[in-house]
Amino acid sequence: MKIRKGDTVQMASGKDRGKRGSVLEARPGERRVIVENLNIVKDHRRPRPMKNPSRMGQAQVQPGGIFDLAAAVPVSNVMLVCPVCQRATRVGYSVRETKEGATTKVRICKRADCGEVVDR
Ligand SMILES: [Zn+2]
Question: Which domains does the chain show, CATH number per domain?
Answer without folding.
Answer: 1-51+63-81 (2.30.30.30), 90-120 (no CATH)
